[in-house]
């Protein structure tokens, strides 16, 4: 593909993300609700709609403001923040990593369907390539955020279990006895 056609193809993508927002959002929500990966009851339809709209709006703003492939830029900060918060919330709610990643990955078919209807074959090929890389990167970011949040939940639960498993025996007023678990190192005496 010639180098000078990429900016024109990027502008088509940017335009379609903003002008076809409601269509993409509606198809994205349908894609998520039809999936067997997303379990009902953990998040309401209204909450899922709001999360989807926030993510799509943030992605559209980032794409409009800058690079379509480099998520490390400042224009992608809002997207990263939203996905990190969403991943943390889902880790606490009991979602699986697959369900959390699918939230982002399920955006591919709606975006590519809109681009496919509105674009030439060259733009479609370019859009497919860029959308696939972009949404895969966002999905990986979501998985990393979910994993870090899940590890924090597990560490917190382990700490709470340790606190619950340590018996405290009251011997006298102001005097308690606690068992010591582990190895006690006593410094050497120097005579």
Describe this structure in words.
The protein is mainly alpha-helical. It has a single domain, classed as Globin-like (Orthogonal Bundle), CATH 1.10.490. Helices cover 69% and strands 4% of the residues. It contains seven helices and two strands. The chain has helices at 6-19, 21-34, 45-65, 77-93, 97-105, 108-118, 121-165; strands at residues 169-172, 175-177. It has a two-stranded antiparallel sheet with strand order 1-2. Strand 1 and strand 2 form a beta hairpin. Helix 3 (45-65) runs antiparallel to helix 4 (77-93).
Oligomer: single chain
Q: So what's the CATH class?
A: Mainly Alpha
Indicate the low-confidence ranges by residue numbers.
Answer: none
Number of domains: 1
Give the fraction of residues assigned to helices. 55-70%
CATH architecture annotation name: Orthogonal Bundle
Order of strands across the widest beta sheet?
1-2
Largest sheet composition: 2 strands, antiparallel
Give the count of helical stretches. 7
Q: Report the CATH topology name.
A: Globin-like
CA gyration radius, whole angstroms: 25 Å
């Amino acid at each position: 593909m010639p180098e000078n056609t990429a900016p024109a193809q990027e502008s088509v993508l940017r335009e379609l993300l903003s002008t076809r927002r409601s269509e993409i959002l509606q198809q994205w929500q349908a894609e998520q609700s039809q999936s067997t990966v997303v379990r009902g009851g953990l998040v309401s339809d209204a909450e899922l709609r709001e999360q989807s709209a926030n993510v799509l709006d943030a992605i559209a703003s980032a794409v409009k403001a800058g690079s379509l492939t480099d998520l490390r830029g400042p224009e992608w900060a809002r997207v990263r923040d939203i996905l990190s918060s969403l991943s943390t919330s889902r880790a606490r709610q009991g979602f699986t990593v697959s369900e959390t990643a699918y939230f982002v990955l399920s955006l591919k078919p709606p975006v590519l369907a809109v681009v496919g209807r509105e674009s030439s074959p060259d733009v479609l090929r370019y859009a497919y390539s860029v959308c696939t890389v972009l949404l895969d990167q966002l999905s990986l970011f979501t998985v990393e955020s979910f994993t870090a949040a899940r590890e924090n939940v597990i560490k917190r639960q382990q700490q709470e279990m340790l606190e619950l498993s340590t018996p405290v025996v009251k011997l006298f007023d102001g005097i308690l006895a606690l068992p010591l678990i582990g190895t006690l190192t006593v410094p050497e005496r120097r005579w």
